[in-house]
Amino acid sequence: MGDTPFFVWLLCGLIPWFFISPSILQGSNSIHQKIKMVSKMKFPVSVLPSIVIVGNSISFFVMLGVLCIVLAIYSIFSGVYLLQLPYYMLCLYAFLYVFSIFSATIATVVRDYYQLLQAGMRMLFFLSPIIWVPSAMPEYLQPILQLNPVYYILNGFRDSFIGGTWFFDNIPYMIYFWSGILLLAFVGAYVFNKFKNSFVDYL
Question: What is the pTM for the complete model shown?
């Protein structure tokens, strides 16, 4: 955290989380909510989670604007580190979509899953570096905490707005994140294609 005020540091983590959490929960429930309507027309069901994500993006960009105002008030400017923000935005949207399409399929087929997901998101809030500083954690715990993809995204947003490190400074962690995204995309596509023609049967 360094010389950065805790309020600013906290805001850089809270704002992405306020976008991630509702997008995952609403996206995971999107197919179940709309399947009766879209089953009567030729509509790509796989688009439903992305509609939720795009809809939530409006408030997300508004909050990012508020963050920029707060950074200006505190005279904090990350300089060239801000150039990596598009990369972390790509990470954020890729993670949200691939997880939502997988989760929405499971939530439609197994309704108890959605209840578990809600509890899991509450737990994920405390397992992600939102209200606690990563460097304050015991060294032996940090590699375990970094397995969380949200950890990578939140740290990236802080590095972009506050400055600190470049995304390519930790290539192994970047490879791990994108390998997880690709694996989840593959599994999500397989599960979705397997059940997409029988979603109505699970209502």
Answer: 0.89
Task: Work out the pLDDT band at 111, boundaries 50, 70, 90.
Answer: confident
Q: Count the Cβ atoms, other than its own, within 10 Å of residue 189.
A: 15
Length of the chain measured in residues: 203
Report how far apart, in Å, the C-alpha atoms of 85 and of each of 35, 39, 103 are: 35, 38, 26
The 3-state DSSP composition of the chain as helix, strand, coil percent (nearest 5) reads 80, 0, 20
* Residue 203: pLDDT over 60: no
pLDDT at 47: 84
CA neighbours closer than 13 Å in the CB half-sphere of residue 55: 12
Q: What is the pLDDT of residue 99?
A: 94
Q: Token pair of 69, please? A: 């105002």
Q: Are 30 and 100 in contact (CB under 8 A)?
A: yes
- Burial letters 87-111, b for 16+ CB under 10 A, else e: ebbebbbbbbbbbbbbbbbbbbbee
